[in-house]
Fold:
Amino acid sequence: MYEMNFPCEILFQTKHRINDASTDDMQYSDLSAVELQSLGLNDVSTIVDPYSMSFKDNTVKYLNAPFFTGYSLKDDKSVTPDQCASILFDEMRELSGAFAFGQYKNLIGEMINHFQHGDGRPYGYSALLNRSFSDLLRARQYRDTTLGVIRDVINKYVSDRHKHVGSQSFIWDVRTEISRTILPKFNDFEDRFNGMGITVHDIYFQRIVMLNFRRYQIGWEAEILVEAQDHFGLGREDITKKLYQNFRFFRIWFVLQRYNRFSFKPFVTNFNASVKLTGQ
Structure:
């Protein structure tokens, strides 16, 4: 009888490395005002001008808003970099509401807070973020994507008594088939509004492990762990796209991250989901 050792060898892992800080979206405090403006980031905030470090002329009406309480308008209208950053973060939080409705709406607020106070430390593991990823995988497990491919390969091996789930040939077949699919991401239409499209706008790294496999007289079941990591940061390739540049939320985010008068660090977000697959 073929002996299987679980957790099984990694079924699949992206070419992108875990904890990779070399990408452009993980850089910070590296661009001058002139460089930012050359990228089209002239109108950043409705409240302050981060380049002159001063309140804008129309600021008085905004300072009456409840989310900006605690700020006072001085005669010279100047602000310190710390005050300017604090106002930008408040505005960013307020703007995030346009992208976040439903059960995951609080996640983006948690991310913004971590961006402001976390000093670049990794974020995770959030039970709500894990649940959203689990929901994503379960919604797609019967489509022609990652989990569907794994199920198909297991079915093929179970039906052939000369093949063994967990063998090197099995792992090779799974990796080959997965490489032809699109890995699950938060890029459906509803993700633009439920908060996940900006909380996890892409998934940089994924690793898939088979935790367990059981074969029965009339079927089988397997427990699959999918680990993922994203970068909560913006690169130049992001902010130069109209989709991002047209929204003040992303313009503020990019300036807070990349302006050399600020020092707010992007970070990695870690999340995972365990999914049970079954077959006959």
Q: What stands out?
A: The chain has eleven helices and six strands. The CA atoms of residues 97 and 105 lie 8 Å apart. The longest strand covers residues 219-232.
